[in-house]
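Here is the promised in-class demo. Please do not try to memorize the tokens; focus on the logic of going from shape to residues.
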């Protein structure tokens, strides 16, 4: 086994949670080269993975929105780069038309994808020469690891390894030696995934009393207005300025705690081994959640709004158990 291509095109949280597949493959096949194909909008994240040897990307999402000639030329150029090597296997763990087209255009006689009932778009099946087994029940992130292992013939062993290394920030996100920082990712792509502003304010006040400095990032004017509404009710809270994806990642890496809804940046916090509480109101925590002993927990049933008390219990768990873990092992909890 010399070279493998993983295809996972979007989005931020899904790509983060797919990264452990790289460590699994490299553990199973020492010396193998692992390339990754992603949308240009998320290629930056894949570059942070220490296990990925080559990142292939094209502005697929941007071209779909703007239909610009420059983006089309960039897509054509990316095809030549995609076909520069022949792969022993292509593993499509996305399962939609655009990922299937990438798999089909790349050079390999072994292109493995999901079974028809597990595809995001059933027409994607045209690209594959082989199929994964039925998608496992339960956590989707572990399911991706299982699917890749079935395709390549190895056993999944141990917890997920993300192997992320962020670029050094030009300036430190927070003053060294200041209060521990808790970041609130209150914004989501869908309104039904939101948690009420009053609930955010309540846990913000609790954390402020515990000595945390609460910060709120945002990505749009509406999200900023909601962040300001929450911050006005939390002593010392800060609404952050507009930030790039890299800057937000670096901010997360400097935090002691991250609380957020089911969004990509909260998955990134988990991958960066931050103390993490993920709140579910409309999506399945058993399918899409995060969980790591002493560190990460998902709350909610995916059908209703979790009460403030449940969130406070989750905070107690990740904060108290992290301290307990540090005492037991003689170092700060990961």
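The designed amino acids, position by position:
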């Amino acid at each position: 086994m010399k070279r493998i291509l993983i295809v996972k095109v979007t989005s931020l949280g899904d790509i983060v949670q797919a990264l452990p597949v790289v460590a699994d493959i490299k553990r199973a096949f020492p010396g193998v080269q692992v390339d990754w194909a992603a949308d240009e909008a998320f290629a930056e994240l894949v570059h942070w993975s220490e296990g990925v040897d080559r990142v292939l990307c094209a502005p697929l999402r941007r071209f779909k929105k703007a239909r610009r000639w420059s983006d089309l030329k960039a897509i054509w150029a990316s095809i030549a780069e995609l076909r520069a090597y022949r792969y022993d296997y292509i593993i499509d763990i996305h399962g939609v038309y655009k990922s299937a087209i990438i798999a089909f255009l790349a050079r390999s006689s072994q292109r493995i994808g999901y079974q028809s009932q597990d595809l995001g778009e059933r027409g994607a099946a045209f690209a594959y020469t082989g199929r994964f087994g039925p998608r496992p029940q339960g956590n989707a992130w572990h399911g991706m690891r299982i699917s890749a292992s079935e395709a390549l013939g190895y056993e999944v062993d141990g917890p997920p390894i993300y192997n992320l290394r962020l670029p050094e920030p030009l300036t430190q996100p927070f003053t060294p030696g200041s209060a521990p920082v808790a970041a609130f990712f209150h914004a989501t792509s869908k309104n039904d995934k939101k948690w009420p502003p009053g609930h955010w304010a309540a846990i913000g006040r609790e954390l402020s009393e515990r000595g945390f400095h609460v910060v709120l990032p945002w990505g749009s004017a509406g999200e900023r207005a909601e962040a300001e509404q929450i911050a006005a009710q939390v002593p010392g809270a800060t609404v952050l300025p507009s930030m790039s994806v890299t800057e937000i990642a670096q901010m997360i890496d400097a935090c002691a705690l991250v609380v957020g809804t089911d969004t990509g940046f909260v998955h990134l916090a988990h991958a960066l081994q931050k103390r993490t509480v993920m709140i579910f109101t409309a999506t399945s925590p058993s399918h899409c959640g995060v969980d790591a002993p002493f560190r990460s927990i998902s709350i909610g049933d995916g059908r209703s709004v979790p009460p403030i008390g449940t969130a406070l219990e989750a905070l107690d768990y990740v904060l108290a158990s992290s301290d307990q873990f540090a005492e037991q092992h003689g170092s700060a909890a990961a």
